[in-house]
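[step 3/7] inverse_fold.run input=structure_tokens len=131
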């Protein structure tokens, strides 16, 4: 199986770099629930307004959020499409590793003289299994 990326390698790097920070993940969560101004976001954290602006800029470069002006405010909106593409990428990696685990299991069974192709194989991880 080859992982088919909808995102370029550079986009994947930006995306996971952006999501590697807890504050940025929290900002994404908040603006997906409801778009908010940068000022409103800044009041929710114990860091400076400038720090929140920088976090939003990182998220914007990764296309996890978009900003638009409403008067003097900058309104931040979450981009579900980018998260969906990241989810599909991670799902492909998960399926790749499940296939590899299944092949290793079959080889081990064969070495042990058991049927190399068990009926069930490794239990696939589903969305219900993830927190």
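[step 3/7] decode complete -> sequence:
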């Amino acid at each position: 199986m080859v992982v088919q990326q909808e995102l370029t390698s550079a986009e994947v790097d930006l995306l996971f770099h952006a999501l590697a920070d807890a504050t940025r993940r929290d900002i994404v969560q908040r603006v997906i629930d409801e778009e908010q101004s940068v000022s409103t976001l800044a009041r929710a954290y114990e860091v400076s307004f400038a720090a929140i602006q920088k976090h939003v800029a990182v998220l914007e470069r990764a296309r996890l959020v978009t900003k638009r002006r409403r008067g003097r405010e900058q309104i931040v909106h979450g981009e579900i499409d980018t998260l969906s593409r990241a989810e599909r990428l991670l799902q492909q990696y998960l399926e790749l590793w499940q296939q590899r685990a299944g092949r290793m299991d079959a080889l081990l069974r064969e070495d042990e003289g058991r049927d190399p192709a068990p009926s069930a194989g490794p239990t696939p991880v589903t969305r219900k299994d993830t927190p």
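[step 4/7] annotate
Strands lie at 36-37, 65-70, 73-78.
The chain has a mean pLDDT of 88.
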